[in-house]
Write a structure and sequence with these properties.
The chain is built from three helices and twelve strands; from the N terminus they run H-E-E-E-E-E-H-E-E-E-E-E-E-E-H. It is globular, with a radius of gyration of 19 Å. The chain is mainly beta and 295 residues long. Helices cover 9% and strands 48% of the residues. A twelve-stranded antiparallel β-barrel has the order 1-2-3-4-5-6-7-8-9-10-11-12.
């Protein structure tokens, strides 16, 4: 799965479909924002890192990717499908599995705190390096094992999250509490993520522009593991702090970047995340209009 191919598809869609809403700048933390009913968002995310800072005996640099298709079924229900893959230098490029998730908003109106329930089924291999969440005692040592060994490890897991989100004077504040369970064995694994984000300007101009401040969102997020139900806590867990920046172009494409830093010995020293997304408003109507126009 190559980033360049995924970006090419998104840019092609952006050239023929009008712009819709902005994408949050976060990579790991979910906000309470739901997809608009009938809209389809296509995104590709990448995680770039190197175990032990790329030392000769510490594993090779990698690019872990996730391509996401997110659809708004109802105002309170968003569903998503992911295809994961990774490329490791001096090793191989492989497909690592898929994920299917649903998010349900638990209260219909905007409140001071807005809860969302998340449930996901994952069918991936141990070679997955998309790092969409960090739980249990996930560490950089796990990312240094050769693909030939980790791809044989099946991970059919059920993951749930309690997402709490708030708006306050232009700021978006979100907290995620994660519980994950391998359906074949192993205890419950826990993790967390939290973020604070804000547009650089709250009022939009009447005319379209590329570099307007309101097109940029910035913030910070933190995430990490919390052990299991047998050894819940912080010892021997990985934790990260990362800055966030998202740029929404008039064409409809949103570009995101997030340099992050590990806070413990179990963490990668540095982790760079990149992402590109595009939202197609009312995909059913758009496809019907395109079909009729081509007749």
């Amino acid at each position: 799965m190559h980033l360049s191919c995924n970006i090419a598809v998104i840019l092609l869609l952006a050239s023929v479909v009008p712009l819709c809403a902005q994408e949050p700048p976060t990579f790991v933390t979910y906000t309470h924002q739901m997809e608009e009913p009938g809209n389809l968002e296509i995104s590709t995310y990448g995680a770039i890192g190197s175990p032990n800072g790329g030392s000769p005996d510490g594993g090779h640099g990698f690019y872990g990717s996730a391509t996401e298709f997110e659809y708004g079924l109802r105002g309170w229900w968003t569903t998503e499908f992911y295809l994961d893959g990774q490329a490791t230098t001096h090793d191989s490029i492989i497909f690592t599995g898929f994920r299917y998730e649903n998010r349900f908003r638990l209260v219909p109106r905007e409140h001071w705190i807005n809860p969302v329930f998340y449930v996901e089924f994952e069918d991936t291999s141990g070679a997955d390096k998309s790092l969409l969440e960090v739980v249990d005692n996930d560490s950089q040592a796990d990312l240094a094992v050769p693909n030939a060994a980790t791809r044989l490890e099946k991970q059919r897991e059920l993951e749930t999250k309690l997402i709490l989100g708030s708006y306050a004077k232009g700021w978006t504040i979100a907290e995620n509490f994660i519980a994950e369970k391998n359906l074949a064995h192993a205890p419950f694994e826990f993790g967390y993520a939290a973020a604070v984000t804000r547009p650089l300007a709250l009022e939009a101009r009447a005319e379209q522009c590329t570099f307007c401040r309101e097109n940029f969102q910035a913030g910070v997020e933190a995430y990490g593991g919390l052990g299991t139900n047998r050894d819940f806590g912080l010892p021997d867990t990985a934790h990260y702090i990362a800055s966030l920046l998202a740029w929404s172009l008039p064409s409809g494409v949103t570009i995101k970047v997030s340099p992050g830093f590990g806070l413990t010995g179990s963490s990668l020293p540095f982790l760079l995340r990149v992402g590109v997304s595009y939202e197609i408003p009312q995909i059913g109507r758009t496809m019907r209009n395109a079909f009729r126009g081509g007749r």
